[in-house]
């Protein structure tokens, strides 16, 4: 692993620590989810679980990063020889990405049959995407460029399938929702597409600059920011949708509540 | 303990870490158990406790594994001399296996008298099974093969008794349940039988290959996958049964819910 300047080391280290706090805080908020109807609690519970898992993994990731570099004086950090464990991120994604799909589909509250089919397809594609990406990620920095790019391309196929499916579903769902929810669903669509794009971009930058401190820093910062927005940020949008629908149900339909 | 390749070490290490996250996530989910009627909450609370205990033990198991091996360069991990503590698994099973029985019997909601008798028999058999298995497990790798196999056979007797009892009870219970629960109970029966079989298989493979890195890896991977499915996976089946029974109760009353 290339050496890092003190500045680069601190950016990565501090961002990871901030992420532990951010994911933990988000977990508490989603579990308590004030002002949300019972009906939407499952989506918020899943959001809370996603950021709890991420919080655990960032504790591990931070520890692994700390162990893999040591200050060698003069504002430079050099590799200790103890490898940074990339797998924590992939283990995290393997559990959380299918749950993010559950979260999204739960808050859309599609008809039951449609939900199940959609979820199965998305969950299988997500597991494939992550499993296919890992061999490439593990090869970054080993000099084996063919492996890095073949697996990247393989992983991008389910990635693009998921994006297209989500885009289609969210666009269709938008049309049948009440007015006040419509703009929030558009926001959810935007958040999914923008934050998810961070992952392949971080991978490419990291792979191209694997031998430089800047490349190492960029990939860690990229993945961490992507995780923060795709999990905690996305959860907040889900919360906003659930909140808006909670108020909406009461205001417009005036149905007796079973909560 | 035999040396491990970097690949073998990482498989065991990463699977254990993933299990910490998976058990923790499952605990949160079971404790919150969205959409489940009050009546079935006890079964879900017990499920949550089981995976919480497992989460704690996997933190310890991971730490013990990490301490028992060190990278000696060239992609090889050698034993540090600090022994890997097998007892964490047995301590975990000693508490969680009787609770898994409670979980199952609770969700079946058998008549009270029947439940109590069944539970007592199953809990005693489970404690015996684990207590008899440990002396054999502790002897794996010491070269004392008689001890390894005598205790294995002793432990298999209560194991087979439990399997036969559960199989009979679950099969009988299936017949008196509503339609939508029946297939889930069959699934529960399948999960119990398949995942529980993993334990003796992992023991045998581990005992036969105790002097090789492959054998060491196989026993750890086997036990870990078995724990994940027998605790978190089984809990999900229990959740599905409770959820189906909850909806079922309400549907007959005439209140179609869309949660």
What does this structure look like?
The structure is a homodimer. With about 260 residues, chain A is mainly alpha-helical. The first copy, chain A, is built from seven helices and three strands; from the N terminus they run βααββααααα. The first copy, chain A, has helices spanning about 5-30, 40-70, 85-110, 110-140, 145-175, 180-210, 215-255; strands spanning about 5, 70, 75-80. The first copy, chain A, has a three-stranded antiparallel beta sheet with strand order 1-3-2. In chain A, a hairpin with a 4-residue loop joins β2 and β3. The first copy, chain A, is globular, with a radius of gyration of 20 Å. In chain A, about 40% of the residues are buried.
Structure described in brief:
With 259 residues, the first copy, chain A, is mainly alpha-helical.
């Amino acid at each position: 692993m290339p050496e890092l300047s003190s500045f680069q080391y601190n950016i990565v280290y501090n961002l990871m620590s901030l992420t532990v706090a951010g994911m933990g805080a988000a977990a508490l908020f989603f579990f308590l989810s004030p002002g949300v109807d019972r009906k939407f609690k499952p989506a918020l519970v899943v959001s809370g679980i996603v950021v709890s898992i991420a919080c655990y993994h960032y504790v591990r990731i931070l520890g692994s990063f700390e162990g893999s570099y040591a200050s060698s004086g003069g504002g430079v950090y050099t590799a200790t020889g103890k490898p940074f464990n990339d797998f924590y991120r992939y283990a995290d994604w393997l559990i959380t990405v299918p749950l993010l799909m559950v979260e999204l589909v739960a808050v859309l509250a599609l008809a039951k049959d449609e939900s199940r089919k959609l979820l199965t397809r998305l969950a299988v594609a997500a597991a494939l995407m992550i499993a296919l990406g890992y061999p490439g990620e593990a090869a970054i920095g080993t000099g084996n460029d063919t492996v890095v790019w073949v697996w990247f391309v393989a992983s991008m196929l389910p990635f693009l399938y998921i994006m297209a499916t989500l885009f289609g579903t969210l666009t269709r769902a938008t049309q049948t929702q009440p007015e006040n929810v419509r703009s929030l669903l558009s926001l959810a669509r935007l958040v999914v597409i923008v934050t998810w794009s961070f992952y392949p971009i971080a991978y490419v930058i990291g792979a191209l600059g694997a031998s430089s401190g800047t490349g190492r820093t960029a990939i860690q910062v990229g993945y961490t920011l992507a995780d923060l927005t795709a999990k905690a940020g996305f959860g907040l949008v889900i919360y906003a949708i659930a909140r808006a629908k909670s108020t909406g149900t009461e205001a417009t339909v005036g149905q007796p509540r079973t909560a």
